[in-house]
């Protein structure tokens, strides 16, 4: 399904629509962008309808009612409320950011007007690991006055396009600013056409989209990449309280280790392999308890985990690399001897590694490009010092074990304010 | 004459029922050989307490420990010195890691027999000179993928007049030569001889869409055919509706549905699967399929979705006699098809992992590996 200028169209019309899109967008760009207030009012109204249960039937018809608990709907709606969006705008861009400012810089003996304007056209290539994220990415683009082309992830079951349709129905003046396509990533001609139309390409990591986009992006177009990050937990001797460990276990199972902020590797502050094994033995029942509470895996993910763990068994049988797999009910732990950050088997199967504090900093520097969140399990008196050490090494967020994947309005994405990247500073 | 040779020269390539005992015997020979010559394979069988003599009846095949394609991508196992391997092929390796499989003379010879018998069964061999349009890679030493090799290989089953490649090798690596394709199609449409398309379904589809967009039609001579092949994944990733595909083939090239053929194979299981006239992939005698439960890995009943385990005694060079793909599929009873072949047919449903997504954490890992970290 395609959303074009406020109207839902069949997928087959994609190429015809793309043909005329350049001319249409040019017309839109000549006009002043819609004020943020229009977007805020529309989002706020939509959030209200979401909370009132108006979309429950839609979620059920898309087979998403099990994926979305009331709690998740509530927190998604909260991000779209007026107060949230106003807070976000003020935090990221400042109050009245679109107002022109007359400047007279010192020693320059001249004056001019500086104004924050939208980047122009944003091409969003969304990932499928967070439901509703594609729509939220477009809302960020709208808040800054951009025309948005959205390529849906293949996993999107129609939720994003219907949410955005509801949004532009709420405020029809936004319709020319929202174009949603369900193009597959390997339809290169269509991807290329969309890339050529845009001033900035917003890529939410995944689906092999990034490498495709790199080769498609026209010279000089701005590539804005979010995601492609790894997160981990660091556990000191003073941090192993039962509450902290079960919070970590719940985080691992509820995010299924699919997010950039999900804990992949648990580092223990020790150099002793035996201690790693002992930790795994005592932590496995905690993880199993969290697994019993978590919703069951879909067959595709279950198959992936089964294969990965079976492969691990083959490796242990034929190649002794010192790793040991401890299988639990619906989860597992792999005790390792090395201390490097690594992607786990995901879906409740983290790696556990020894890492003395003296080696923490240099290890993280080796992975500086991919660091995101660190969950810190330590004594209160160690916390400030350790947090600063992690941040100085390149981590962008240090949290407690249960909040690694928390999301609040005005969050920075990977250490940057997204709205700043969707705008440009002009002078006249 | 060895059991493998008897199996690969069996007259009817879809007589699975008639070759059950022979298949087990050939698997036992193969297993005994790899157990003796590949230390890692031996360690794995020992770990599971399995011995080659355990293969006595068709039911025993499910007990043979399998290797996973995932495992083969990180570990190269060999049962023969590399000097004995005449051909090496690598998987397309969409996630960076690739499996490398070598073929020894005996395995290659078995493969030739297999291909000839399958081609003959489906009437693909023809003495009529043919124009080829290869929607894949022009052969080059930088590209060792099996996909590139087989696409070109298939242009030898009829005398080739001309071969035109969609992906040409230039100064900066491969590039898409769309204009070259159009020029070739103009020539082919005027030719007295038929055209055969070879390549990925997705590329063929996008070519037809692009022609449609430009309003171009190239009705090709009678007897022209479209062969779709490539990795297994090509078949479900696109989710191109088959009916749409056939309709476009008729509109753009005047090629009827009956002349659109699909085939697949995997580097780790180099058996030629070709579709029947009902577009079903019947299991040929050289191969057996076990669908396994996604949680327990136990064999699953007919008609249930599970992980696809493929078995063949084809190779002595590498112990790929039982491999587990990362595909999800269903095995159907052959009698359900009605094409004449009665061997079971395999339907690939998708790939493990959540539908169509790669998570951002997994993406990061890949990026990092790509940077050599």
Please estimate the helix content of chain B. Answer: 25-40%
Secondary structure category of chain A? alpha/beta
For the largest sheet of chain A, list the strands in their spatial order.
2-1-7-6-5-8-9
Count of discrete domains of chain A: 2
Tell the overall outline of chain A.
Answer: globular
Regions with little confidence, pLDDT below 50 for 5+ residues of chain B? 231-238, 355-360, 366-373
Helical/strand content category of chain B: alpha/beta
CATH topology of the largest domain in chain B: Rossmann fold
Q: What's the overall geometry of chain B?
A: globular
**Largest sheet strand order of chain B:** 6-5-4-7-8-9-10
State the largest interface: A-B, 56 and 53 residues
> Which CATH class of the largest domain in chain A applies here?
Alpha Beta
- Provide the CATH superfamily of the largest domain in chain B: ANL, N-terminal domain
Strand content of chain B: 15-25%
Largest sheet of chain A: 7 strands, mixed
The CATH architecture of the largest domain in chain A can be named as 3-Layer(aba) Sandwich
Number of helices of chain B: 11
* Name of the level-1 CATH class of the largest domain in chain B: Alpha Beta
Per the CATH scheme, the topology name of the largest domain in chain A is: Aldehyde Dehydrogenase, Chain A, domain 1
Which homologous superfamily in CATH is the superfamily of the largest domain in chain A?
Aldehyde Dehydrogenase, Chain A, domain 1
Low-confidence stretches of chain A: none
